[in-house]
Amino acid sequence: MSNAPAPPTPLSPNAKLSSLTVSPGTIQPTVFSSDVTNYTVDVLTNITNVTVVAQAQNAGAIVQINGSTTTNLSVTLEAAGTTGSTTLVTIVVTALDGSQNTYVVAVRRAAPAGNNNLQNLTVSQGTLDPVFNASTQNYTVAVATNISTVTVTAQAQDAGATVSINGSPVTSQIVTLGNAGTSGSSTLVTIIVTAPNGTQKPYLVTVNRAAPGGNNNLQSLTVSQGSLDPAFTPSHLNYTVGVATNITSVAVTAQAQDAGASVSINGAPVTTLSVPLGVQGSNTLVTIVVTAPNGLQNTYLVTVNRAAPGGNNNLSALTVSAGTLVPAFASATTTYAVAVPNATVTTTITATVADATATLTINGVGAISGSPSASISLAVGQNSIPIVVTAPNGNPKIYLVNVTRAAPGSNNNLSALSVSAGALAPTFGAAITAYDVATPNATTTTTITATLADSTASLTINGASAISGSPSASIPLAVGPNAIPVVVTAQNGNPKTYTVTITRAALGGNNNLSALIVSAGTLVPGFAAGTTTYDVAASNATVSTTITATVADSTATLTINGVGAISGSPSASIPLAVGANAIPVVVTAQNGTPKTYTVTVTRAALGGNNDLSALSVSAGALAPAFATGTTAYDVSTPNATVTTTITATVADSTATLTINGAAAISGAPSASIPLAVGANAIPIAVTAQNGTPKTYTVTITRTP
């Protein structure tokens, strides 16, 4: 048995890293490999330091970062300047046996950005118009008249950019608005965004403060005891409330629709008031006055009826000779509306008491239950007619009938209009007052039929009285335009004139086409007889065309491109040069008047598209990702990859393609291309149909 000592354990030669990270940023290539020693990291221009963390595979190995023995180091980056900077970080790993491995990270700091756009823009009151978009610089905001300040908040897209609002270096500012006065005001807010590179962009917000409103309506009206009759609506001004005989006071609460309006109840500037009631069986009137911001007032009346001990003061029936009650009669409903035409100048009211011993007055005059009242005159507008029922115990109840007599009719519109000589242009509409009618020379007279929208209006046609809906007397037509007035006079005397201009054609003066077709392509715009200039786009392969033109008047003559042609038949073939070819189509009316339609056929030149629409490499991923306008790409591939193929697709199928100098088929992989260690620049050449070349270059770097 030998007593010799055991041989020493050999020292590890492992000088590789197990991980490598840079914060902020992402190493490229993105997946760390201990066998890849060169990396890049891209950071923003505002990043001045990065933290590099490197861990050795062997725990005994020594790691040095930029000469410092550490696995974690904060590295100060070179100044960005105007074009950016690159800072090299060197990581040296020393194995236990002394062997070393060096990793290099190039940290590329971006140049200062020129982004002077806003990310967002808000105003605390109102809404931006239009909706915020970084490229839109002018906005308006509408706010209510009671808004005296707004908070404007602006955030730049680029964290390195600065923002000022009305000259203050802030991103949010309270802005005092101009006095609304009587017509409102506009306040301009200026937001300036300064990019890191110093370029500026202004955004303007005009805050329009509304003029004081004229809204003097109530939003709500309540009485603490009983219920309003009828139910509250802002447009209704008179209400009654019935309360029990033991109720001695009620609280009246009124809220205005407009926050800027003021409310008074029985003269007190309050929105809630306790109102003492009169003795049992009495009526207490509560007056609510709403004053709008512009000073206009509206008065609401609430009659609180405190019941007497007993006593029926209801009606059992109520009718009006002039019209229909709205709502339908119910004994508990005390206010009604009736609408009557202007022609109704009087009415009678028939009211029937529920208690035969109750007394009745209508419009202040004693009346007999169940019998028509005396005739009541009606003025134009609202006529409030009270019906008072007094119970045997003296407790009265007021029913109110508001009869609204319409004003004299103001409708001076027609509902229909037609002309025997031809069709109106444009088609009839009540609001359209001027029309044209084209008629042939043979038409020497016409009639006009006009129908009134309001039967109370009067009508004249060409100065003579006419009957609504019936043809007028025959009207002679001279050659040329004949302006014929149709006058509608409303019941209130307000006139409205419709004018029909009938143009009688001269003998044989029609030099229009009724159709036009080009074999080489489609007319732009679409054919219309009054349009004389057209464009047609044709491919380069189209070397000639024919034109088919149809005259509107068979007595007219036709030439196409200077050669006599037959209406409705294709012309002789017309050769097309590359570019614009103006082809005249001349129509000569029977009376010798010519009209020229011009068709410009533009034959396209040979294709000039030398772009790729797709590009891929079997050896790895393109950096950057493919885009038609980007012509230079990098691909990183491991040492084990010794060949590659490239698949390129041309955007225009008429273009030709070579890859690495060899002809290639669009959309199909190229022949195999050998890869040397290091950078391999492979050209992809695209030649357009017109011979214009374009070269894309893919540089594939095979690692050692």
Task: Please give a handful of descriptors for the protein shown.
single chain; 7 domains; 704 residues; 59 strands; mainly beta; Immunoglobulin-like; six-stranded mixed beta sheet
Strand count: 59
Widest sheet: strand order?
A: 2-3-9-8-5-6
Shape field: flat
Report, as a whole number of angstroms, the end-to-end distance. Answer: 50 Å
Continuous helix count: 0
* Main β-sheet description: 6 strands, mixed
Task: Please give a quick description of this structure.
By secondary structure, this protein is mostly beta strands. It has no helices and 59 strands.
Structure characterization notes:
By secondary structure, this protein is mainly β. The protein has seven domains: 93 residues, Immunoglobulin-like (Sandwich), CATH 2.60.40; 92 residues, Immunoglobulin-like; 89 residues, Sandwich (Immunoglobulin-like); 79 residues, no CATH class; 91 residues, Immunoglobulin-like, CATH 2.60.40; 91 residues, Immunoglobulin-like, CATH 2.60.40; 91 residues, Immunoglobulin-like (Sandwich), CATH 2.60.40. Helix content is 0%, strand content 48%. It has no helices and 59 strands. The protein has a six-stranded mixed beta sheet with strand order 2-3-9-8-5-6, with no helix packed on it. A five-stranded mixed beta sheet has the order 25-32-31-28-29, with no helix packed on it. A five-stranded mixed beta sheet has the order 34-41-40-37-38, with no helix packed on it. A hairpin with a 2-residue loop joins strand 28 and strand 29. The mean pLDDT is 92.
